[in-house]
Amino acid sequence: MSRPTPPLDVTDRRIVNALQEGFPLTPRPYAEVADWLGLTEGELIRRLGRLLDTRALTRFGPFFDAEALGGAFCLCAMAVPEARFDEVMTQVNARAEVAHNYARTHRLNMWFVLATETREGIEDAARAIEHETGLSVFRFPKEREFFIGFRVAA
Amino acid sequence: MNIDTTDRGIIEATQGGLPLAPAPYAEVAAGLGLTEAEVIERLAAMQARGVIRRIAAAPNHYAFGLTANGMTVWDVADEMAEELGAEVGALDFVSHCYLRPRALPMWPYNLFAMVHGRDRGEVEAKRARISELLGPCCQRSDILYSTRILKKTGLRLTPRHNPLGRR
Questions:
Q1: Between chains, do A103 and B18 touch, taking CB under 8 Å as contact?
Q2: CA gap A88, A90 in Å, rounded
Q3: Is B59 in contact with A45 (Cβ distance < 8 A)?
Q4: pTM
Q5: pLDDT tens, A53-112?
Q6: Among A106, A69, A39, which residue's Cα sits nearest to residue B46?
Q7: Does B36 contact A25 at a Cβ distance shorter than 8 Å?
Q8: Which of B122, B151, B153, B161 to mutate to test the interface with A (most CBs of A within 10 A)?
């Protein structure tokens, strides 16, 4: 994000494109993917490590669905006065339930996602943030999610 | 939770990422006192149930030049929202697409679609394509650019027990 990343070569980009699709559940999965890409297992692992260290990849592994786990996600937004922005950001970010938080261009200028292990956890966390900050938390739970085929073209 | 303690142990062991080692599932298994085959089976079963969406790499959009990120929001007629949402989600440049409740009067929008580009001009061009697709079914729209990532950790289960009861 803010840290400059070293340039990625064609092989790095092929790795990123391939690994956005999925990863084998077999005993030697890196060897299998390396084989498709014409690399050695060792080279794939080394390059993946570097892509993660330089933050070109934010994560590599299973992506869990909080809702399928019996928990919940909820997008929330607040209208934070500019003068209090950093103070409120610190209060919001301090909560473990806050998975992402973004500053955005709107009167509702702080948008964050609550991820909790139980459905009730969302309300508890939103109320706690309202109590702590004295600001309203607008809740935008998803009513429907549409299938997405988007991939970053690396 | 719709998972047992073994699944939970596997989730806690892998939510930060898979081991970068030739036999990653064997490593996870060793840490939990399971066999490699059990870990693979459990992961496959969780994937089949939708607990795992996929096992994959998540690129940092910024590192790949996608530095303009806009949340486009649309006030779409309720009776058309399902159908139009599916069409917007199918556009190859939309990375997330949801229907959410409005918060009137402050927030009249019910369809949310995330759009990314190398600059805001590119994002605006993509927004215009969504606008075209929605046509008269959309009354109002807006775009909220992200100006700063304040936090990004993703879901974390709080370790609250010893996986498989071991200390």
A1: no
A2: 5
A3: no
A4: 0.80
A5: 998 998 999 998 878 877 888 999 999 999 999 999 999 999 999 989 999 999 999 999
A6: A69
A7: no
A8: B151
